[in-house]
Amino acid sequence: MERFHWVQHRCRQLLNGDSGRGWYSAPDGLPDKNYVDAHSSPQRVGGKRRTVLARHGPYQQEHEAVSKKYKGNAIRTTKYSLLTFIPMNLFQQFHRVANLYFLFLALLNWVPVVEAFEKEITMIPLLVVLTVIAVKDALEDYRRYLFDKKVNNNVVRVFCGKQKAYLERCWKDVQVGDFVQLSCNEIIPADLLLLYSSDPHGVCYIETANLDGETNLKQRQVVSDLSLQGEDFTPESFHSRIECENPNNDLSRFRGYIEHSNGVRVGLHSSNLLLRSCTIRNIETVVGIVVYAGHETKAMMNNSGPRYKRSKLEKRLNTDVLWCVFLLIVMCLTAALGHGFWLKNLKDPIFQVGGEISPALAGFYVFWTMIIVLQVLIPISLYVSIEIVKLGQIFFIHNDLDLYNEQLDSRIQCRALNITEDLGQIQYLFSDKTGTLTENKMVFRRCSIYGVEYPHEENARRLEVYEAEQSEAAGCTVTLKSGFSGKSLSCRSVNCNHSFMSLHTLTAESPEEEDQLSNHVPARTGVFCSRMAKDVIPDPELVRKLNCLCSSALHLRESSSETLSTLELTYITDFFLALAICNSVVVSSPSQPRYVVPEAQTPLKSLEEIKLLFQRLSFYPTQIKGSPRSLTRRLFARGKTGSFTFPLPTNNSTDSDSAPESNQETSKGQMDLLAKGDGDNRVNVEEQEHLEDHMEEECDEPKQDEEDLSRDVESEEDSDDELLYEAESPDEAALVHAARAYHCTLRARSAESLLVDLPGIGSLSVQLLHILPFDSNRKRMSVVVRHPLTGQVVVYTKGADSVIMDLADRPKGAEQEIYSHITEQTQKHLDSYAREGLRTLCIAKKVLEEEEYDVWLKRQLLAESSIENREELLLESAQRLETNLNLLGCTGIVDRLQEDVPETIEALQQAGIKVWVLTGDKQETAVNVANACKLLRADDQLLTANCVSKDSCEVLLNALILEVQSGGDVATELTKESSPSSAPSFVLVIDGRTLEWALQDELKGSFLELSRRCKAVICCRSTPLQKSKVVHLIRDQLGIMALAVGDGANDVSMIQVADVGIGISGQEGMQAVMSSDFAISRFKHLRKLLLVHGRWCCHRLANMILYFIYKNVMYVNLLFWYQFFCGFSGSVMINAWVLILFNLVFTSVPPLIYGILDQDQPADILMKQPELYKAARTSKIYVSSTFWITVLDAFYQSLACFFVPYLALAGSDVGELSFGSPVNTSALFIILLHQIIESNTLTWIHMLVLVLSLGSYFVFTLPFSAFCVVCGNPTNLFGVELQQLSQPLFYIICALTTVTALLPRYIKTHSHIFPPDQELMSDLCSDPNSCLRNDAQVRSANHFTQSNIHSYLVPTGAAGSYL
């Protein structure tokens, strides 16, 4: 507590009446200490806000008045109640055009003058549609009701003012202003402001897996000065007023302040807010006050269902529906005009009904009668059929074994239910790199410190062995696990006995959605902690140097000079200290939930131990004067040349053959630099040589040292009780594990300090002053600490090399050459790492003087305490601090490619899909990964666009366009002379700064022209906003179908902008998945998803739509041709019941099966021949030409179906229904057999459905004809069907009609020996006889038998793995 009061006193001294409030803040779950002077004028929340008062306290009456407008915590996701279901459901259903169309026809048939059928008959289609949808809606709503009831009845402890105790209440009874007490593993029922934690530092850990899929722990902090009220928080003593912003869906932002009774106001931020749906971890008790409840919580406001998009094919369908409307109007006008002329020319009619009617009025009535008769021409029911087909397609995609990940026990998720066919039309694919093309399992590979490179060759060999093991494991048999297996997470604390609730208690989602999400959530104990990441083998040379730190024989003869390795050892120590503490890693273990830095014990060594330490480094015992701080300041202070000689670093890289020569040159540079020194900074060559010999004697046992270090590591791991690091990113975890491999171990973390082990020093308690978290603008993070030995304020920074290198200090004088050499060598190593495909990070530090720190702290306090523009002020404050950094070194982290990525990209390119890579990594790394994944080949010409100004960007783009155009001309000539494969191709690489200029209006035309001509484009150093801009530009300007795939939050905007967004459930949570249309677990799954399922879905749906249109046009025209023989009166020759049920029952199911199960090519052929995807996309199955060809074919078949029976029965005395019977029966056979001709796949399911469709027709018509005497006036079918079936002529007419109608279609379909796809396949094969089967063979291969259906459940190869 003394430290805390000192902090408070120091803070008040600094503020001294200023309006700033705050001591320490970090937005993402770090300690927050914000104070304000009672007499200052604090900033208020701008705009609308809410006031929160304690429900039981002195403001009880005011609370009741204010809280009336706030929602309760009960959630209700149902749409209806028992009373409102029928009216509300009907109201919502009649918002659909299809239902309005059916309603219009039903009402129109009730008008006597235009009545075509019996009134109840026209009601049947509408009633069927309304009933089916109502039942579906009722079941869904009832399921939501059950989930809501379960959520609302969950129990939580709420403070009761009357009984002065916490009582159990249901979630639905919690209100804004209630005090809620939670324990470990309990789900947070509402958005709470954290007021108390049993942790002595006021810290609370939460897990947000239910909210965003991230399983690492997040840290939240009690509102800063509430600890002044005493350690035992009591709700009765809370007399404060809370002002905060109105509810919103921004999970990362919370603004407001809390005003105490004494007038002190404290800023509130997201680190003080516990969000509904998160889980309390590793804390015995927390207390919070409800600020948002129920549907006003951030979790509920972010709870959105499946995404709905309009596919390209549906947009085309809308146009064709309008053409069908046009045809209907033309046919009805023709009938109206014909009836008018017929009446006008009618002489001496036999009878007249209803008096005299003018021909014009009669024609007007007939127009509306024909609208009723020909209603089927408009395929409104097709939209319902499409939804059913897509659900069937999604079912088969979801159950494809090849798209199942056994490791994660996860299947593909289809979140957008209506764009499956767009998967078969993709032209551009925009991909993230890290976590999408790569594993996003970061493993420390090598590093550079003080300009010296440490290759870690043994570590590289270990990774190769690990990859080999993984490849062998990947070959194991895959067994499809249940997609609905629940998972649980247990608390590691022995004091936490409370059970936790499942996901659906948070957002009232269905169990299916809950389990889909849980399938992607790995166990919390393994977050970024794989064996590959943890088992880092140290570099022998670095081990040797660190062991020199423990050696006691390193001395100098003169007190004014220090050893060559002293500064380098300082760099090494600072480097690993930065790796250990510059992060947000939470330390835990199975036996202890979280390590806490002890208050009573100070791990610092004694004065004598510190003296001994510096004797080992460079000092004689007689030289030690003053305090340890004064001595250690000389060791760890940056740039203090009065006591140091700065040797040039030697290049220790062993990567190339020129390494010995470079080492010699560097050593020569050291001697030259030392010779230039003067005064105390000069060391002669003899002393240098003597020192090097002396060091070799003491430190030239690297193997033994490595063995000792390995033993130490093993013993340390035993003593560490299996420390578990839970990081927010795999980069952080990899660096912490690397530091631990060198005995620089992060043992514990608290809100104000860190416990770190340093080699040769032991445990140190590092006071944590500030954390400046990583953000995409700064591209770095920093920690401000008070050094445990020197007492100085030190800033440790890690971040992207492009940023850190620009912020590196450029000292003058004697230091300039040293730091220039370090910077130069580090840059070389960075470039080398990038060429190897490693992810690079730079590590730097900065020592602050107390006065400098005080000035910065004052500005930081103002930024932290601001309610408005807080993010901008914090960014400005961080940028002000992170300048003139001292570069310590860099790291190279390997992130290996996912399996089968090169093969997948190669297949996608062969399929005609252009692949773009949009990444935030540096250019060399991106190009190396592009080479590794075969996006960039050896014969490709690489075009690089790195510009320093907008003008130079314009010039470069124009020059590159000319170069590509000239290359294109050469490619055309080569294509004519030889083969297309010999033509050159171009790949554009553009950095983020140049891309920003290229996306501006003045240059985007040139950028589009250039990128359109390139085979691939790699965008480096791109921001999330630039990614979305690129996708939006290419999609809209080129009019292409774009797919975007990513795995992290920085890919969300790109995924949402694309026509098809695919999220990969990887190491970075579920943000990308929850924003996507489809979610997969591996990039390789794109191959089958697009080439097989995409093509199948597009082909199936297009053919089904054309078949549906054909069926309707063909059948309706039968009624239209009959009008020419009945005076265009609107009469029909078919019974009304049969007419209505023909489309509703008899021919409704076969198109659905056709759209779900048809396969134009087997899966194995589509996987082996990606060119078929391009052929299917460019052939354009469903375009205007195919639509009109289908309509013309339907017209022809209707003519044959009508006039063949007409000519056969001409001159006979058959009635209209006797004539209509063979016409209707022939139409049924023609329509069903037409589907068989068009089908590429026939299974027993197809045959069963066809037989049932025919059987249902006769099962209905025969009893109807036999027993229904007075049914269907005026078209009574009594006795007609039985008589027709007894005559041989009926069967002859049906057979002749069917053959005549289908013969042209059959000839067209089977006229080519090789269909278009097979022609392409024959071109791809060098030996067509061996590569390609003839048409009959292909079709027999595609036509499944009953035994093939069993392969849906038992995988038998590539094709058998389907379903």
The proportion of residues in beta strands is 5-15%
Shape estimate: elongated
The low-pLDDT segments are 1-47, 474-526, 552-564, 594-608, 614-720, 978-982, 1319-1363
Total beta strand runs: 33
Strand order of the largest sheet: 14-33-32-31-15-27-30-29-28
Count of alpha and pi helical runs: 49
Radius of gyration (CA) equals 39 Å
Mean pLDDT: 76
Tell me about the largest β-sheet: 9 strands, mixed
How many angstroms separate the termini? 64 Å
- Percent of residues in helical segments? 40-55%
Instruction: Label the structural class.
Output: alpha+beta
Task: Please indicate the count of domains.
Answer: 4
Describe what this molecule looks like in 3D.
The protein folds into four domains: 2-73 and 174-301, Calcium-transporting ATPase, cytoplasmic transduction domain A (Distorted Sandwich), CATH 2.70.150; 394-429 and 921-1090, no CATH class; 526-597 and 606-893, no CATH class; 1104-1360, no CATH class. The protein is 48% helix and 13% strand. The chain has 49 helices and 33 strands. Helix 4 crosses helix 9 (359-373) and helix 40 packs antiparallel against helix 41 (1216-1238). The longest helix has 39 residues, at 1085-1123. The two termini are 64 Å apart. The model is unreliable at 1-47, 474-526, 552-564, 594-608, 614-720, 978-982 and 1319-1363 (pLDDT under 50).
